[in-house]
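Re: your question about mannose-1-phosphate guanylyltransferase

S., sorry for the slow reply, the queue was backed up all week. Below is exactly what I fed in.
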Amino acid sequence: MINLILCGGSGTRLWPLSRTLMPKQFVKLFNHKSLFQLTIERNSTLCREQLIVSNTEQYFLALDQLEELKKVNNRYLLEPIGRNTAPAIALACMALGKEEIILVTPSDHLIKNQVAYEKAIVEAEILAKEGFLVTFGIKPTFAETGFGYIEASGTDVKAFHEKPDCKTAEMYVEAGNYYWNSGMFCFKVGVFLSELEAYAPEIFLTCKTAYEHAKSDGMIRILHEDMLLIPEDSIDYAVMEKSQKVKVIPSDIGWSDVGSFDALCHELDNDESNNFIMSNKHVSLIDVHDLIVIDTEDALLISQKGSSQKVKEIVTRLKKENLELTTTHATVHRPWGTYSVLEDKPGYKIKKIMVKPGKRLSLQKHFHRNEHWIVVSGTATVQVEDKTYIVRENESTYIKAGEIHRLENQGKIPIVLIEAQVGSYTGEDDIVRIEDDYKRENV
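Result:
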């Protein structure tokens, strides 16, 4: 069995912890491990191989976190833009044999009962071998209005139901045969593709074309223009709600989608006043109760418990007012290392940059800014136009606007440097890449 791991999504309901370029599945929330890492560990003993479907920007986060787990022999399919779960799963299936059985799992869910989980997977694999599309229904613990429900009779699916109102959700829970839709699936590749072709032919055909045009350089890279042509739809709407081959495994596996801070509160400790606080600094609260306080380097969120679903509304507004607050943290991860913005004012920006051993930035130039580099630790190999030279600890160099340049770490320890940008515009999109080891199209 092959584990297909879906890494899309930006987790906006967990802002400011989760951002577009550091979504919730990669935030280390549980004993210094991320939900993505827990997903890898949970399924690596059940499946002989893991195929990761990721956005091109998030691929490097996945790679770093897999290296931490010492799990480096994985396959990747990279999407330039997201088109929901049906196309993501279809493109991955097209890279596999029709008789392969795959276990589709999101990368951002928490499962606490491993024994019950493994039992459910075994049951699902048996049904998948018989030619069924298998989904997993989570036994509800309360009347949740934020999930879709599966109405079942044993393993037979009677109906899929949209997110209900509170009264309907209570009825579902009381009935005992309604389950939360987990977003996990198990089936034969050929069965799924056949059902997709029957019920969503446009998705099937555009995915087939996109896969045939994809670049393969150790991973599968879907072209941007082909991805745009694929209709956007979920596997539930495209296939599962229409197919006559669907089965469900009722599951009581300690599952949570960790989809809000209220959900996260249930998994992590609260203080004695029933407040939930996440911060790198000491936070004291007086005579307040049932608050959620999320403090990051560049943003502070305070919410009443029970209202954290409204975070999505804040993110929508911020996208219009301050896009960077929704996309990046103060520290941004790149394939070569990280950078942290220390100060950003009109006319200048100051960063701390860390470059990992053996890595280098793209060969690039800027139109609107000059750059001063001061090496704090490590030894930097710097290329400016046709000259290459070494910059050591406590030494500096200067790059004029328009000059082609590159920074490389040929040493054994990380390079840490301070970069001072001075110019009329210091945005991240003022980068023209001439050559890039990581085949990136954007910054």
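The two ends are 36 Å apart (CA to CA). Residues 2-256 form a domain with the Spore Coat Polysaccharide Biosynthesis Protein SpsA; Chain A fold (CATH 3.90.550.10).

Happy to talk it through on Thursday.
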